[in-house]
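Q: How would the structure tokens look for this protein?
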Amino acid sequence: MISVLQRCHNAKVTIDNQIIGKIGKGLVSFLGIQKNDDKKKADILIEKTLNLRIFNDSNQKMNLCIKDVNASILGVSQFTLCADTKKGRRPSFLNAANPEDANILYQYFINCLKNHGFQVESGTFGATMDVQLINNGPATFILNS
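A: Here is the predicted structure in token form.
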């Protein structure tokens, strides 16, 4: 399981010009689910997402986690993170989980974040979405379970 976290001032995801998820200050988590990923691997990414100290303190040092700054999370499924680009010019997606299994883990990821008391918005699994965000920093982190 792969998550690309981007610290943001705000973000939103739209489908057919309809906003389906929108947050202010917080994190956007692009989530790629691979074959053999399971709830244990999701739990690792959830804990890392909630506890990674990537927000600035009063001294402009990254010492605070999302819990400390009372921010929101936008979770977006993105199977292209599972692409293998080692050979040729066309990415291979053989490492991506099948859609049914991936959707179950994606929903689990989103629900667990909500159960920790955060405002969590999400995209729609499998949909073509437009994601807009203003990256704060810029600060982008790649997490891999």
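The mean pLDDT is 96.

Strands lie at 2-15, 18-23, 26-32, 55-56, 62-64, 72-77, 120-122, 130-144.

Upvote if useful.
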